[in-house]
Amino acid sequence: MKSPKLIFLLLTTFPVFFSCYIYCQYYVEAIIPVGSYPIALARNTINNKIYCANWGSNTITVINANNNQIITTIRSGSQPRALVYNNINNKIYCANQQSNDVSIINGATNEVLNTISVGSRPTALAYNSVSNKIYCANASSNNVSVIDGINDNLITNVLVGYFPSTLVYNPTNNKIYCANMDNECVTKKCTI
After folding, report:
1. What CATH number should be reported for the domain whose range is 30-190?
2. Exposure of 84 by Cβ count < 10 A (0-12 exposed, 13-18 middle, 19+ buried)?
């Protein structure tokens, strides 16, 4: 039979050990200075880079995730707002809110390859890995632009609800869902 003293010791030290286990395993490893108003992140899974869209400075900071060092800073369009990574062609897509376009960045060289005009005030991106398409929610034109990930051109614009603000791709049914802020609904669109 255990002594009451031993039981008391276990009961009082276990919560301290348990709390330290929960809280001590999380900490800030590095603080990386980037541009003004960082607003979006994307991860390049091929070469372990992090891309940070800096809304206020019209740039994208590229970070080496192996050592948390800045690799380079890329000029984007005006007010970069959202990022998405395409692992099929190793490209990063950046929705530029003020210039109404999407910048396409080479994930190997970090160079802007092309810029595609989309709707008014693009605010969100989603990537369909099955059909290799990029979807861009355009808040002020109430539509979603569909971009072909193979040759990076605009396929079409799909009308959705008012002020589309967020997109998500569901690989189970191969559909894109769009949250429309001004009419409080979610639009489900079949993949185009």
Report:
1. 2.130.10.10
2. buried
